[in-house]
Specification:
Layout lengths: L1 H5 L3 H13 L5 H13 L3 H14 L4 H13 L3 H14 L3 H12 L4 H17 L4 H13 L3 H14 L4 H4 L2
């Protein structure tokens, strides 16, 4: 079933995961996989439901918490998303969550949110000076602030560090 998920056959893997759940198999990993399947097929309400169930089983499950944070963000529940991501950072600060927090800060689309996001990414860059993803996110945020020349400099810097990082090319 995991192979179906890994091969991006989300409808098929979801059916099998739900069958396992119906047959009495219930654990945090299964609930988390179901949540991610629903995320992948853009059924965010159900994703939220299963991530919450997974977190109820194991309140420290990083993958379930991360999925919950993504689902909240997708549903434009930015405060809940940030609260969830901050919880992960208390348990185990990792780059994926650090980047996600900066992106969520930027999501509201207001200038003050862009500035908060920019300041956050700059603080991260002080800690991780050669991280091409952080540099790219600074570029994205600068573009949102209509600081195009500065944005381009950051995209080029990101590409120089990792020429294979496609996101920097498409901004």
């Amino acid at each position: 079933v995991v192979n179906l998920y890994n091969n991006r056959e989300y409808d098929k893997s979801l059916k099998h995961f739900l069958d396992l759940l119906k047959n009495g198999c219930c654990n945090v990993k299964l609930l988390t996989y179901i949540g991610y399947n629903y995320l992948k097929i853009h059924n965010y309400e159900n994703a939220l439901k299963y991530f919450k169930e997974a977190v109820n089983v194991d309140s420290n499950c990083i993958d379930a918490l991360y999925g919950l944070g993504v689902a909240y963000c997708t549903l434009e529940e930015y405060d809940l998303s940030l609260e969830t991501l901050n919880r992960i950072l208390e348990i185990n600060p990792d780059m994926r969550t650090l980047l996600a927090k900066g992106i969520v800060l930027r999501k509201n689309g207001k200038k003050e949110d862009y500035m908060s996001s920019l300041n956050y990414f700059k603080e991260l860059l002080d800690k991780f000076p050669n991280d091409y993803k952080i540099i790219c996110e600074i570029g994205v945020t600068l573009r949102k602030l209509k600081k195009y020349d500065e944005a381009i400099i950051n995209f080029e810097k990101s590409i120089k560090i990792n020429p294979n990082y496609g996101k920097a090319y498409y901004q």
